[in-house]
Structure formats: structure tokens, C-alpha cells
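Exercise 7. Predict the joint structure of the components listed below.
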Amino acid sequence: MADVDLGSVTRLRLERAARSVLGALAVFIPVFLLGTFVTYFLGYLSGLSPAHLQLGEAATPSAVARLEHEWGFDRPFIVQYVSWFGALLKGDLGVSWYNGRQVADLLSARAMISLSVAGLALVMGTVTGVILGTLAAVLQSTWIDRTITALTSFISVMPSFVVGIALVTVFAVTLELLPSAGYVPLEDGVWPWLSHLLLPAVALSFDTTASIARQLRVGLISAYRENYVIGASLRGFSDRRIFFVHVLPNGIAPALTVLGMKFPNLLGGAVVTEAIFGLSGYGKFASDSALRGDVPSVQGVLVVSVVLVVSFNVLVNSILNRVFPSAGRGA
Amino acid sequence: MFRRILQLRSARLGLGLLSAILLLAIIGPLLAPYSPLAGSDAVLAHPTATHLLGTDYLGRDVLSRILCGSTVSVFGAVLVALIALLVGAIPGILSVYLGTKFEWLSLRVADTLTALPFLLFAASMTALLGNGIMQAMVTVGVLVAPAYYRVSRAAALSVARSQYIEAAILSGASVTSIVRKHVWGKVLPPIAIVLASTMGHGLVVVASLTFLGIGVQPPQPTWGGVLASDLGYLSYRPYAPLFPTFLILITVWGFNLIADAIRDVAGESGRVLLEQNAASTLETKQKSARRAKPAPARHDLLPSTRTRAAPAAAASDVLLSLKDLTIQHSTTGNEVVRGLSFDLRKRRVLGVVGESGSGKTLTCRAILGTLPKLFQVSRGTIELKGRDISEFTRKDWNAAHGRIISAVFQDPASYLNPAIRVGKQVEEISRVKNGLSRRLARAHTLRLFEALQLRNPQLVFEQYPHELSGGMLQRVLIAAAIALEPEILIADEATTALDVTVQAEILDLLLDLKDKIGLALIVVSHDLAVVAKLCDEVIVMKSGEVIEHGTVHEILHCPQHEYTRLLVAEHNSYGLDRFLKVGEVEKLDHAS
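Solution:
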């Protein structure tokens, strides 16, 4: 009897794990495939070739044709795509047309800057968003709730470059508290490093803060209206236990979903914040390379950003499935 | 619909702002006092009479640059939204009609475009594809398109699935009137909302791109470009970003006001409605507990009263006593329960019968101290083990719930936390309230599950509420309710939604529990059969009043009130007995 019971319990657990993994893969493999395809197709669509970048004014038709043959640009599109995708799976992002260096190396040199800004913004946005959203939900319909709601709807419409410029004007130029631009590696000390990242991260985090706060407020308020809260209260649990064990895990689902959707914005918004704060991360690299017509470098950045987005979403999804198992029902 | 939107002050404000901006975008270049490209020696000048907003680092007049830049900035945003509408809405509608392959593919494309880092792709694509304003608008339009794809798909789906359109076709309405009445009303509001919000979003994106020098090259003026040229000289003119920022924010605000107004009128968010509904149905415990206490004396806490109340309870065995209980709706003043009195003694079962809306559930909620927000006890008292519950603090209720009084309801699934395995939820009770270790609490839970005749308790322990049937969930809920061995259990329509055999099993269990752990039960039901099976004593309620109160025998066999007679008679005529008799009559007919 005991064996049968344990067997069915294990099977139940395995089924759940398999369903959550398969569900995530079904959504994100197509996103990865299509995202990388769009990226490659973009380069093809631009009609740019290394010949124009390298030969410059000296580009004669025969010289262009020779160079394009060398790079394999006279092959059919689909052949080029397959060989590019194959290299991509091995981690080879090609060679920059601009300076002939490996794109993967160029990117890994900048990874620290971009990821620390995006990561810091993510942490700051989540923490402040959670605090504001929770306060607004617990103190629902009080002046605190109204203030927070007004604040979040205000900052959600603030474009990140406006926030960035405002921060530079106030904290760097007027108060001279923090540096206005540049980057210092972590090896030079934690505070110098952090002080250069704080303003861009704050500018980038506003959107996340606002979304998380709003979604969490809505999620918590609707969780508080659920019968299981009455149920928990009738079992004699304290307000605190009801909030942390029964309301929060259920109310957090929409905020978590939004967090997954906001991560692309954090990476994308870096284009603007890096320009304002003079950081040479992925955003700056992408816009500079694109303006130069350095197709492989642009493709490299975009592919890496797609991979980051997909991995982050798989992570968020698996957390969601863990915290909120019935969400996986439909998948 | 349009008129109703215009009645909102916010919508009028939004329209006013947008008209002003639109006017600026059209005639702005004509108003410019200087050429936007002409430099001068007066570099980085502060605002003066000749240069109202000062000059930039090349000595160009900032006001002229902003005025001339408004055309590209505003119309860029409008065009982005229109391109996105075209690119998104058509596949969105087609996805409903072109079969599953196209549907799957278009959904994946929309997913992918949404998942891409927006600005990064917009900037790279525009720059790679030729770095012109057309390229910028098309790329941004394509990247925004999934928003339109989703709303138009949802609208098309709801139209395709709605039966009232079929009904309208069958009733002979003309196609144009159907489209006008049923389709546009559903399709237009969401599209209009997305249009307004993507125009606002598009403005920000176009401004961001031009800020980066992408889409429009530097000498040509745009709002974003003006911002970018100010950025390097903040120490000279720290106020400079305010001017273009002000215009950008005003425009975005205008679009958002319009989007919100449409949403409010079309009932998309239905915010007001939702909050009213929620307030009238359910609410969190602590507020009602706070409301229900008129400043209790500090010394009157549970331990002392227990000893004081004990002799009285022992003398009469009364666990719960209601005297003249009256519950009022706080805003309308309607009395939804009037003058209800009864005593509940140990091991007794009291039935409360009546149609829905007769105040049965509100009475239970009042006894449990969880009256919904809009209701209050306006008269009378509820005494739980000799103590007036209006004096209960949150702490008193924490001590009373589960140990003295407990409850199960209809729709058991909703009373369990969907995110926690059911075993853990029952285990939590004895762990938290009795301080048992995880292992002991688990063993106790499994014993409870077994006692409630759940097959394979270990498996049930590991399952989530959505994985269990209604009957199993009700058993789990009863297990949770009796985990602390309460003295009173309220079963409010606890078996109503279950099928008949399960219902009978659950009723047997309740009776069993009454005998085993000495429970007193309050069984609320609209079903006389349930009451007859379980109860010693019955209260019949109608429109908030008790119309009959007696033993089961009295109520069933000699009902005094007309309504009770009706209930009994209905039960007789629709009950099983009647069919049995009919069957017997038929048998007799066959025999003869």
C-alpha cells in the first residue's frame, strides 16, 4: 500500500516538472528562432556588405564582387542564414566589418557594463516597485495609496531620456553628488564603480518600478478579496501570516509576469541611458555599429539581447510555475 | 459613445491639449522667428526678448528649433500608430479566420516582436536600413504592431464566437446594421485605446531615436535632437531640457487622457464598477473586526472571561446565543436580518432553512465576525461561550477561530489557497496554532484525511486544489475546519454544489463528527432533506426574519407558517417519494 502511494506521489511531481519545462520551451524556442531569424534577415535587408565599409570610395564593381565572394555573400540567402545560424549555435558571432575583431570578444568586453546597469536597474525597480505596490495595496483607498498610484502613473509616462537628463541636471550638474558620465571598472573600487552606475540604473528602473507597483497593487488587492483569505482567517491565522503565506504568493503572479515582459525594455532602454551617461555598453555599441553599417556587430548585439531575454523569461516562467502551480494548467 | 467620452472633463482636457499640439505641428514652422539652422555668435545665450528660449551651442534659436521640430515629432508619432494599425490589425483579424497554421505562426511572430528589446531593435534597424525618418517610422510601427494584432484578434474572436450575431442574422437584420450595432461597438473602443496609447508611446520612441541622432540627422530640428544638443551644456543652461520635455510630456499626457477616457466609457477597466462590487461582496477580515469593536475594556480579554463565562456555560451548555440580532446595510439602511434569536447547545444541530437572500449567510458571517464591509450589526448581541463578540479584538478572534468556532462553505475550491498543496494548508493549522513540528503536523493531517475518508491521503496531501474534485475539496476543507477540534462548526450550503451521492457521504461525515468530537453544528441549507437528515432544531427564514422555529419533527409534520408549508409541500411534490409513487402506480397499471 505504502509503495503504491509513494509511486503516485513521485509520478505527480515528475508530471508537474515536465509540464512546466515543456511549457516554457514551447513558448521560448519559437521566440529564439524567430528573433535570431529577424536579426539575420535585417542584415540581409540592409543590403550592406563589408565591401562598402572596407573599400570606401575606392569600391570598383570588380573589387566589391571579389570581396563579397570572399565573404560568401554571393551564396543564396538561405545558405548564408544556415551557416550563420550554425556558427551562432557554436558561439561564433562573426567578425566586425569595422575593425576585423571577433564580435563575441567585443561584446564580452562590454558585457559587464550593460549587465551591471540592467541588473542594478532590475533590482532597484523590483525592490521599490514591491515596496510601493505592497504599501498601496495594504493601505488601499488611503491617501498613501492615492499618492503612490498618482506617482506610479506619473513616472510610467516619463520617457527614460527625460528621467536621465533630469537626474544628470539635479544630481550631477547642480548638486555634484554623483559623476554625470563615464564608467569605472569594479577593480578600481566598489564605490567608484557603483557611483557611475547609480544614475543610469535609476533612470532605467523607473518604468519597471511603476509597472511592478501597479501590478502588485492590483494583484494583492484581488488576492485579498479571495475566499481563501477568509478561509485562512477562520483558521485563526494572524494578519501577518495571512499576508505573507496566503496573499503575497498569489498576488505576486501578475507582477512577476510583467517583470518578465519588462526585462527587454531594460536591455533596450540602455540605448538611450548609455548615450546620456556616456557608457559604452551594448546600447551604445549597437547604435554606433548600426550607424557605421557594421552588420555582424549589430547582429551580435541583437542576438545576445534575444538570448538574454529568452533566458530571463524562462527563469521567470519557472518561478511563476513554482509559486503559482495552477497557472500551468492551461499550458 | 463619442458624446459620453466628451462629457468627461479629462477627455476634453486631453483633446484640448492634443489639438493645441497638432496646431503647433502644422503651423509651428511658420511661427518660427528665425531659421532653425541659422547659427549666430550669441552661443548658449539665456532667454531674452530676442531669443525667447535662448540659443544652443551653435547660437541657433531654441524656440525656432522646437517649433520647426514639432512637425516631424508629432506626425512621426501619428504615422507610427497608423503603420502599426495596418501591419497589426490585418493579420490579427485574419488569424481568426485563416486556419490554425496561420494562427500559430502569427501568434509566435507577435510573441517574438513583443519579446524583443524594443529600443535596441528600433535603433539598430533604423540605422541599418538607411537611417531616414521613413525607416524609423516603419520599424517602430512594425515593432508596435503586436499590440494591434492582439486587440483586433481578441475583437475578431469575440465577434466570431458571439451568439447574438448569429441570432441577429437569423432574425433577419441587415449586414450593415449588424456590423454597425454589434461589431463596431466591440471592435472600435479597444482599437481606439491602443491607437491613443501607441501614439503617445510612438512620440516617445521617435523622440528617443532622434535624441540618438537616428532617423533624423543632427542639423535638422526635432524635439529629441534639441534635447540631445542641450545635454552637453547642462552646466551653462541647466533649465534647457525643460522646454522640449514639457512639450513631449504634454503630448503623451494628452494621448493617455484620451485612452483612459475611452477605457472608462467603454467599461474596459470598469474600475468604479469593480470596486463597488468587491466592496459589497467580500472583504478582508481585519477591517470588519475593527469595525465591530466599540472600544473593549482592556481587562476583558479572553482568559479572564473564559473563567467567568465557564459556570454559565456549564449550567446551560449554551455555546452560542443570538439575541435580537439585526444586520443592516450601512449605506441603504435596509435591515437584511431582523430580530434573530436562538441558542446553540453542545452536540446539538441547528438547521437554518430559507431561500437565497433570506439572510442565512449574513447571519453566519456575523457569527464568525466576518461580515462584509457594507453590513453591520445594528441591534442585538451575539454571545460566543458567554462573551459578546462585539467586544472581540483581532487577537480574540485569532484565538476563537478554529478552536471555538469554524466553518465550511459552498464552493470549497475558493476557500483553499490555489498556490499551496492542500496537505500543507491543513498541516499549517496544527503547526502554527498548536506549535506541532512539521512531522507531527503532517501525521495529524494524514489522520484527519483518513478520518474524512479521503482515499490515498498521501497523494491528496501532495495535490493542489485545482487537481481535486469538489467532494474531495469539501472533505479537505472540513479537515481544515476541525483540525483544532472546534466546538461549533458552521456548514453554510456546504453540500449544495456536490452531486447527490457525495452529498450524502459528506452529511454522514458531519453527523459522525458531531458524535465523535462533540461538535455543535449549524447547518445552513435551502434543502429540507439535508436539514431533516441532520438537525435537531430548525429555523425557517424569509426576507431576513425568522418565520418558524421548532424541532425537525414539528417543522416537517405540522408547519405553522404558510411559507414553511409551501417548502414542505414543494419538497413532497418534487422529491423522490413522488416518483416512487408514480412508478408504483405505473407498475400497477402494467399489472392490470
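Discussion. Residues 268-315 of chain B have pLDDT under 50 and may be disordered.
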